[in-house]
Design a protein that fits this description.
The protein has nine helices and eight strands. By secondary structure, the chain is of the alpha/beta class. It has one domain: Arginase, Chain A, CATH 3.40.800. Strands 2-1-3-8-7-4-5-6 form an eight-stranded parallel β-sheet, with helices on both faces. It is globular, with a radius of gyration of 18 Å. The relative contact order is 0.18. It binds manganese (II) ion (2 copies). One manganese (II) ion (MN) binds next to loops. One manganese (II) ion binds next to loops.
Length: 316
């Protein structure tokens, strides 16, 4: 299979043509790909403001602004990896458990083809079936590490009278299912008011490293990145980027905004700090275009997607 390249912006203007992720070819078969970028347009796990189901389409649109080479690392991902836009998983919006099964089987097909998934949500519950599929396909079948950018821990037990599957619960479920090793989990950017003073106690008891935004502000990206790399080591991990980790002044288009967040520049520095880790897949979630302003949140999502793609290119 050839190395796919984005449409040349010197020949076809960025605003012309069909919108695909990074202006890459749209393929329906992941065979031969190293990384499959795909959309998961589903927000049935959302507990507050919806709209993340519209995320993939707008991130595709804004990703037309991405170019080919990372301006700091010099990484040219399309020269190292066979990457394409695999389209959206056709997830039905009504039956939550059926939707999770559809997402898992869609990602399983990507893994079976030997490609790593780089997905765009969708709300954060989409990450649970993605992790299930990656974990089943991983050669070691051992629990994975997780680097989670988020304003929220997403380790609550249930919502609205015992509903255990929401975008506030995926990582508790993944730990219970043996998919994630909580001692190799780090959550960065956590902040905002909580339901109860001990809301994060369960997560901390499991051994999850919660880096509140205040600690990040004190210590900075270099120190935090070094700690993350030490925690992850050489073992397989997954990277999940909830756009609400970014301050809503810079990324307003999301369902559960919390002020006092990461700047886009800080988030970029942190993702670059993941270079060299053994990353099996990654995602950008919770971009909600109906709450966006001028496409700024979708642009932030598209840019973080490019940052993640470059890190994936540096790990193989
Ligand atoms: Mn989240
Ligand atoms: Mn969040």
């Amino acid at each position: 299979m050839p190395f796919h390249e984005p449409v040349d912006a010197a020949l076809v203007p960025r605003f012309a043509g069909h919108a695909t992720f990074m202006r890459l070819p749209a393929l329906s078969d992941p065979t031969g790909l190293d990384v499959a970028i795909l959309g998961i347009p589903w927000d049935g796990g959302t507990t507050n403001r919806p709209g993340a189901r519209h995320g993939p389409r707008e991130v595709r649109n804004q990703s037309s602004l991405m170019r080919r080479v990372h301006h700091v690392s010099g990484t040219a991902p399309y020269e190292r990896l066979r990457v394409a836009d695999l389209g959206d998983l056709a997830v039905q919006p009504i039956d939550l458990m059926a939707a999770l099964a559809q997402i898992e089987s869609g990602i399983a097909a990507v893994c079976a083809a030997g490609a790593r998934p780089l997905s765009v949500g969708g709300d954060h519950l989409t990450t649970l079936p993605v992790l299930r599929a990656i974990h089943k396909a991983a050669p070691t079948r051992g629990p994975l590490g997780l680097v989670q950018f988020d304003a929220h821990s997403d380790t609550n037990d249930s919502y609205f009278g015992g509903n255990r599957y929401t975008h506030g619960t995926p990582f508790r479920r993944a730990i219970e299912e043996g998919i994630l090793d909580p001692r190799r989990m780090v959550q960065i950017g956590i902040r905002g008011s909580v339901y109860a003073a001990d809301e994060h106690q369960w997560a901390q008891d499991q051994g999850i490293r919660i880096i509140y935004i205040e600690e990040f502000a004190r210590r900075g990206a270099d120190q935090i990145s070094a700690e993350i790399r030490m925690l992850m080591g050489d073992a397989p991990c997954y990277v999940t980027f909830d756009i609400d980790s970014i301050d809503p002044a810079m990324a307003p288009g999301t369902g559960t905004p919390e002020i006092g967040g990461l700047t886009t520049r800080e988030a970029q520095a942190l993702v670059r700090g993941l270079s060299g880790l053994n990353i099996l897949g990654a995602d950008v979630v919770e971009v909600s275009p109906p709450f966006d302003v001028g496409g700024i949140t979708a642009l932030t999502g598209a840019t973080m997607l490019f940052e993640l793609l470059c890190v994936l290119a540096e790990t193989r």
